[in-house]
């Protein structure tokens, strides 16, 4: 083990995070730690080229007013993997207890094992936290459900644990692999899972959850509605409060059942009423 390692921290607005993460992974980085409202990358190799690449990406997106904050430091080596493990806290959301494989389950709760990894979703982010609360309230045993933009698979797994017949999809191959891995870890299976979006969906659903950013929700609005059965429940999450009015306007033909706000993040529950 070398005596020193390099640590690069960067921070961008939430709506650009996935873009910057994809850029980092495409350059061969295998792991990112999300913390302090940003991301840490650690390597025994100098990360100056990666740091410069992030600057270039921000410059190319200058028309979008991307604000990039970053620092690169050289640190004395230590077992930072174990240190990171110690920093990851389990989370209890009503009757669901989310923990890692190196933490003990909690009796009398529905236990979900998720190891923090590259794909989004461990229950700690506000939008995922709200979705988990809402799934427990609105998902019913035996219904056909779709997790649109499954990320780590945490919502798909919870739906399956609640007795739903689950389909899942994501445009990111990494997310699909992560979802399948986490499903195996939690001993659940899905009806269907695919890389892509609603264009590959063959069914209508009694329940759809979409924990994705507002811009994508707005683009997919028609396809989402097309795949809802009569009286189906739709949960939209990952919506910053500044986009709330736009999303509500697009979905005003559905009945708004509940709205949940966690810090600046909004989650909306709709029902498609019979005409």
Please explain how this structure is put together:
The protein has 9 helices and 14 strands. The chain is an alpha/beta fold and 275 residues long. The chain has a 7-stranded mixed β-sheet. Strand 8, helix 5 and strand 9 (165-170) form a beta-alpha-beta unit.
List the topology elements.
Layout: E1 4-11, H1 17-26, E2 33-35, E3 38-43, H2 48-60, E4 69-76, H3 80-87, E5 91-93, E6 96-99, E7 110-113, H4 126-138, E8 144-148, H5 154-161, E9 165-170, H6 173-185, E10 192-195, E11 205-211, H7 214-219, H8 221-226, E12 228-240, H9 244-250, E13 255-262, E14 265-271
The best one-word shape is globular
Number of helices: 9
Topology pattern, helix = H, strand = E = EHEEHEHEEEHEHEHEEHHEHEE
Task: Write out the strand line-up for the largest beta sheet, numbering strands in chain order.
Answer: 10-9-8-11-12-14-13
Total number of strands = 14
Describe the main β-sheet briefly.
Answer: 7 strands, mixed
In whole angstroms, the N-to-C terminal distance is 67 Å
Q: Helix amount, in percent?
A: 25-40%
User: What average pLDDT do the residues reach?
Assistant: 90
Report the sheet-strand fraction: 25-35%
Question: Pairing-aware structural class of the strands and helices?
Answer: alpha/beta
* CA-based gyration radius: 19 Å
Ranges with pLDDT <50 over ≥5 residues? none
């Amino acid at each position: 083990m070398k005596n020193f390692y390099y640590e690069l921290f960067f921070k961008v607005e939430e709506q650009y995070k996935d873009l910057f993460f994809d850029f980092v992974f495409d350059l061969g980085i295998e792991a990112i730690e999300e913390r302090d409202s940003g991301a840490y990358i650690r390597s025994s190799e100098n990360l100056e080229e990666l740091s410069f690449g992030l600057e270039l990406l921000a410059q190319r997106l200058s028309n979008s007013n991307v604000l990039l904050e970053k620092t690169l430091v050289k640190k004395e080596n230590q077992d930072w993997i174990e240190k990171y493990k110690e920093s990851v806290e389990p989370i209890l959301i009503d009757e669901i207890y989310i923990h890692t494989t190196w933490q003990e389950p909690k009796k009398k709760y529905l236990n979900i094992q998720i190891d923090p990894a590259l794909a989004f979703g461990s229950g700690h982010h506000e939008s995922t936290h709200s979705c988990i609360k809402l799934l427990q309230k609105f998902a019913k045993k035996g219904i056909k459900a779709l997790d649109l933009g499954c990320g780590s698979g945490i919502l798909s797994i919870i739906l399956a644990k609640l007795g739903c017949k689950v389909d899942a999809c994501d445009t990111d191959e990494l997310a699909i692999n992560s979802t399948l891995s986490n499903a195996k870890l939690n001993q659940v299976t899905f009806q269907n899972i695919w890389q892509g979006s609603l264009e590959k969906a063959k069914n209508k659903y009694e329940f759809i959850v979409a924990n994705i950013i507002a811009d994508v929700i707005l683009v997919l609005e028609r396809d989402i509605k097309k795949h809802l059965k009569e009286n189906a429940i739709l949960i939209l999450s990952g919506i910053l409060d500044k986009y709330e009015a736009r999303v509500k306007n697009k979905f005003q033909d559905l009945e708004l059942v509940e709205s949940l706000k966690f810090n600046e993040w909004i989650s909306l529950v709709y029902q498609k009423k019979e005409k």
